[in-house]
Each structure stands twice: as C-alpha cells, then as structure tokens.
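Q: Here's a chain of 310 amino acids. Please give me its 3D structure as tokens.
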Amino acid sequence: MPASIAGAQTEGLTRLCVLVPHFKDEYWLSVGYGLETEAARQGTELIFFEAGGYSARESQISQLSECLADGVDAILIGTVSFDHPDLLEAVAGAAEQRPVFGLVNALASPELSGRIGVDWHDMGYSVGSYLAARHPAGSPPVSAVLISGPEEAGWTGPLETGLRKAIEASSLKISAVLGSDTGLREQLRLVEDALAAWPESDYLIGSAPAIEAAMGHFAQQDLGMALHPRLIATYVNHTIKRGLIGSQVMAAPFDDPMEQGRMAVRQALGVLTGEDVAVSDGPVIRLMEPDSEELQTLKMSPPTYFPTIE
C-alpha cells in the first residue's frame, strides 16, 4: 500500500514519488500539503519518503531506488545535498528510467527534467536589502550572526551570498556564520553558541527553526525584546508567521512553500503528458514585516496536517 495517497487508488493512476530532507521544519509540511492538495485535484497518487535530515544522504539514495522499484511515473526530490557525487550519480541513474524533478532545493544535476523553487540568492538578497535600508553606509555600525543550514544543502551558500551582496554598502557586518541540520534541537544549539560568543550582536539572522529556537530561548529567559538581538528569519514557516504577527520577528522573505508544492505536481504532470511547461519556475518572493497587509492571509498547511511517509 502506498505511503501517502492523494485521491483514490485506481489502476492506471499517475504516481509521483516525493523525497524530502525531513519534516522537522514546518516549511516542508506546507510543501507537502501543497503537493497533496494539487495531486488530489489532479487525481494523482503521491508516495512520500523522508530522508531524516541533511546528513542522511545514503538514506535518500536508497529511497530513490525504492521509488523506482515501486514503478512510479516520476520522482520529485527535495535533495539533501547540492552536488555530492554519490547523490548526483544516483539521480542520473534514476533519470535514465523515470523523469526526476528538483523540489525546492537546488541540485547540480543536468539530468533533471525540471525544478520548482525560488533562487535562494534572491531570498538572502531580500533580507540583506531590508537591513541595508535600515543601516545605510555612514550610519552607526551594527553586527549580526547568521545561523543557517548545513554547507552541503543547495540553499545555504546562495542565501549567504545574496545576503552579503545586499549589505556591501551598508553599516552592517556579519560577525559569523553557523550552520547545522535544520531541526529545532540542532538550531537551538547554534543559537546558544552564537549568543555566548557574540553577545553584543544587534541581529540574529537565521533559518525558521533557528529563529523559532531563539524566540523560545528568550521567552524562557524572560528577556525583554530590548535585551536580546533582533530576529530576522531567512524564510517563513508557521512559527515565523506567528512571530511576525506578534512582532517578535522583524522580517522574513516568503516564498510560498504550499504553492511550490502545487507547482511541482503541475510541472511533473505537464512533462509526463507532453505539455510545454517551464523547466524552472517558482513563486515571487515577498518580504514580510509585522505591518505587512498580506501577512494575516499567508497560506500554510493546516496545524493538524502531517503526511503519511514510507
């Protein structure tokens, strides 16, 4: 029996296999929900696999083989590594048998039939532009620590590059960059390290789990907002949306993970049926602040949603 079904199981139904790094970050739950709702609308079956984290490369490679063994029509992969040779070889081998599509995370594979996702350079640039406008050249110097995902992930390098590019002419300097898997526990450890090593930082810029961990840490310490670094997230999940609404988070770029899931299903089905579809596509990035009019209406997966995984 497939791990997660969108629509009735019917002979001849198009079947898509979805591989994600993990569901420890609520962001991926919204991607999954977008995938499921669009698959249900299209009468398509989904099978979900979760690698377990960005260090679980061998697990994801094995899951590629399981997808092929299940006889799926196409594979959508939210990759755990941008360019590891073993994963690239596995993707190339899978692509000889079925179309493989990049999902959210960039993958340095010419064998992909398409990719849905934003340019993470632009995500970082959006954050940097916001901060550069607040701290233009010649204004008092300020500092920040960036807490991100692991180096091997396809989004961390471009995000940092975009951020640094945007703040080149500002008074903001990045004191340090810390990275690890994007589970809450791992990111909390980095938050604690950053606060201990750079206690005078004006900003903590971080992944959604990092900023979630920071909000919890500050609440536990009962620190007023003026007594800790201001928080900027590098993307939006459920908790960051709540943090923006409550003004605990100053800003975060929104790349509509639910819509990315819907777009990924449409792209895969389009290629399978011979339609003329964009090889690379993604939603428009929108920077959210506490007073953004559209903040209240941002769509995320329902609070009770969790996909059934293999």
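Q: Can you summarize the key feature?
A: The CA atoms of residues 77 and 190 lie 27 Å apart.
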